[in-house]
Design a protein that fits this description.
Elements: H1 2-24, H2 31-57, H3 63-87, H4 96-163, H5 166-188
Helix pairs in contact: 1-2, 1-3, 1-4, 2-3
Length: 189
Amino acid sequence: MSDHITSWDNDYARIARAASQLRTTNNTSSSFDRQGQTSSIQTGINRLASQLNSLESNLSLTPAEASRRRNLLEGLNSQLSGNSGIVGGRGGGESSTAAALRQQDDMIDELAVGVGRLKTQTGLIHQEANAHVRLLDEMDNNVDLANQGLEEETRRAMKLREEKSVWRLHLIIVGLSVLLFLLILMGLS
């Protein structure tokens, strides 16, 4: 699912750059070229809106995220409709302050897309870190269980060693030797 969101973000950034380039290009482009570019950008915006609806219906996005992205598309659409006046031949009537503000808006929009990607990546890193913590906890439990098993086996080996100790065998040999010696002495007398 996050791949679809990242793809949407990348497509939006590409279309926003194209719209920004269309706005900032001077009037050296022919009206036909600018109309073709405007049409292509509008098609991209429509495709993004469709994908956004799909992501929203699949519950891939929170309502707040969907709303934010919808606002980005509306801003891009309004910028594009502002460009259609330029395409129609208004030509260079826009003040430099308005152009600078639009450029700042575009940069902020692109920054928002980048922040969204960072949010997605930090979420993935958080999930990965949690998975590693779980694995480390499981490993710690497994090491504790193995340590307990080793201690139990050590105790069992010590008990077995005590039960089968060599000194008892030596004591039995000495006792049997004494008994044999006494039997031999009794047999001789």
